[in-house]
Amino acid sequence: MSPASGKTKPRTTRKLKDAMTILRAMGFGPRQSNEVGGYVLLAMLDLGSRTDWKDAADPLRGITPTIDFVAEKYRLRYAPNTRETIRDEAVKYFVEEGLLVKNPDNPSRPTNSGKTVYQIEKTALRLCRTFKTPQWDAALMRYLAARDEIKRDLQRARELARIPVRLPDGGKITLSPGGQNPLIKAFIEEFCPRYVPGGTVLYVGDAENKFQHYEADYFTRLGIEIDSAAKMPDVVVHDPKREWLVIGEAVTSAGVVDGKRRRELKELFAGFRSGLVFVTAFETRADMGRFLSQISWETEVWIAEDADHVVHFNGERFLGPYPDTVLA
Q1: Are 218 and 182 in contact (CB under 8 A)?
Q2: pLDDT 10s digit of each residue in the chain, 328 long?
Q3: CB atoms < 10 A from the CB of 24, how many?
């Protein structure tokens, strides 16, 4: 990957080489201790070309602000289409290895939020401040010795922020925090016992892991083949008593079952010979109101704040008096 334009001065090159040296000393391989990794580290430490290592800081920075920092301080502008490469080849790996902390200001921020930020881990920050000082070697040895414990502590913190979900059969899964995942939890724990009693949850999607819960063999027994690139719904539940496949979409900002999505889902689950039931879930009536004109006929709507009711967009199929209007 190369930047869109720009050249570096000798002083800038020395600072970049220093950053790459630190990454190698921390145990990162060539792919993470390259130029991109070095610039990411400098941005996360708020180190311009003339800033001493002892003055390293720990700002909160997203991917785009990181690119902007490098452009401003090092006259190196990475093309906008390199954001994913920077995230996948440097930032994501640094998070996994405990060098960076994701969303320390708000651990419940959705995985795919545009407000996602990263921060240098505090122990790594203290280490970097000793670079080119007599304390560096001893500080590096202490850091490497504590590295596994640092990663375990960060992993525990990430797990605590995840959303626990109890499946109808008593099993448990967790979802990444934020976004529509609290609503997915409500759909599984509140909608399913009421409207699909005895149902089996076959699939649960998550922005962090598309196939967070996936019963591949069960789908095969139902005659359904799922392609890994398929645009899956949020939840799929099989009702064995009525031979229904209940397909749920949890909507907080997008994803309602409109006419186009209904056709996509019919095609996706075309191998299932019995009935498909399409359900759009909202947190509130106000949320439903924002999408009312988009909801497809022949679908259902469930609202978490009114969990005991379902809205049927089904026309005459449900036309008729309710029991409380019929005289004894």
Answers
A1: no
A2: 445 444 444 446 899 999 999 999 999 999 899 999 999 999 999 999 999 999 999 999 999 999 999 999 998 888 877 888 898 889 999 999 999 999 999 887 877 788 999 999 999 999 999 999 999 999 999 999 999 999 999 988 888 888 999 999 999 999 988 889 999 999 999 999 999 999 999 999 987 788 889 999 999 999 999 988 899 999 999 999 999 999 999 998 888 999 999 999 999 999 998 889 999 999 999 999 999 999 999 999 999 999 999 999 986 777 666 676 566 5
A3: 15
Which residue type occupies 59? P
From CA 37, how far away is CA 92, in angstroms rounded?
11
In 57-79, which positions are buried (b, 16+ CB within 10 angstroms) versus exposed (e)?
A: ebebbbbeebbebbbebbebbbe
Q: Give me the CATH code for the 10-161 domain, please.
A: 1.10.10.1820
The pTM for the full model equals 0.72
What are the domain boundaries of the chain? 10-161, 163-325
What architecture does CATH give domain 163-325? Answer: 3-Layer(aba) Sandwich (3.40)
